[in-house]
């Protein structure tokens, strides 16, 4: 599978960050710049945070002039502005894509490394179609059969990020043992899912570990599910885009970008990973619990 269009989320974020840095470099405040553009402060703030849905090249060029940027820097930012108009492949799924999920999809599809802790269910990037369908039938009880089919298709298509032959992203995940023992759909479906995880863990870019019950609470409290997304390095060995933590909840999720938040979640993952089983023992446990589910059918 080849790389697919990763959409406009990352270019929007990059454009906004470069514009903010250019404004800061000449000592201009957000209010001053917005006033010169005859915009509200919130409009410019949304642009700098990568949250503007519609970005006009004329506005970007005006801002570049305002910030005294040279021709080369201006050309680079105009190119980013063009990319923000890209149509993302997941928009084919229409109303199933909420604005918040659209943002997450743009980041996930651009990520070069994903670090995941999941204490309750198998992460979407690692789910089988049957497991995904079983979850969606419960979580979206009012969806039609066609909508459920599309949700499952979307989940499977997302997995190209880590299964494609051309530069697959790296995925590191720690799953709590409760994930293995919670029956989703049926024992047959759950057993097949666990064998799928064991098989995936043999791939060089995929590291899956299990945090056993006996490890207790490594960070001193129950840590909810989270994903750290990293976007790789440029030719100067600097991050192409600041990392992001996505923290899931029942009603949605939040994006954390402050250095202190990133540090805290990275440290938490290191502690959790240190308390988890190694890759091979985790793979053995996955296959062992799959057999237990088979025997209990």
Keywords:
2 domains; 6 strands; alpha/beta; 434 Repressor (Amino-terminal Domain); Endonuclease, Chain A; 297 residues
Topology:
Blueprint: H1 9-25, H2 30-37, H3 41-48, H4 57-66, H5 71-83, H6 99-110, E1 113-118, H7 129-139, H8 145-158, H9 160-163, E2 170-176, H10 177-181, H11 187-200, E3 206-211, E4 226-230, E5 244-249, E6 252-256, H12 259-275, H13 279-296
Parallel strand pairs: 1-2, 2-3
Antiparallel strand pairs: 1-4, 4-5, 5-6
Helix pairs in contact: 1-5, 2-3, 4-5, 7-8, 11-13
Strand content bin? 5-15%
Please count the helical segments: 13
How many DSSP E strands? 6
Helix content: 40-55%
Strand order across the largest sheet:
3-2-1-4-5-6
**Strand/helix succession:** HHHHHHEHHHEHHEEEEHH
Rounded Rg? 22 Å
Structural summary, described in words:
It contains 13 helices and six strands. The protein has helices at residues 9-25, 30-37, 41-48, 57-66, 71-83, 99-110, 129-139, 145-158, 160-163, 177-181, 187-200, 259-275, 279-296, and strands at residues 113-118, 170-176, 206-211, 226-230, 244-249, 252-256. The protein has a six-stranded mixed beta sheet with strand order 3-2-1-4-5-6, sandwiched between helices. The radius of gyration is 22 Å and the shape is elongated.
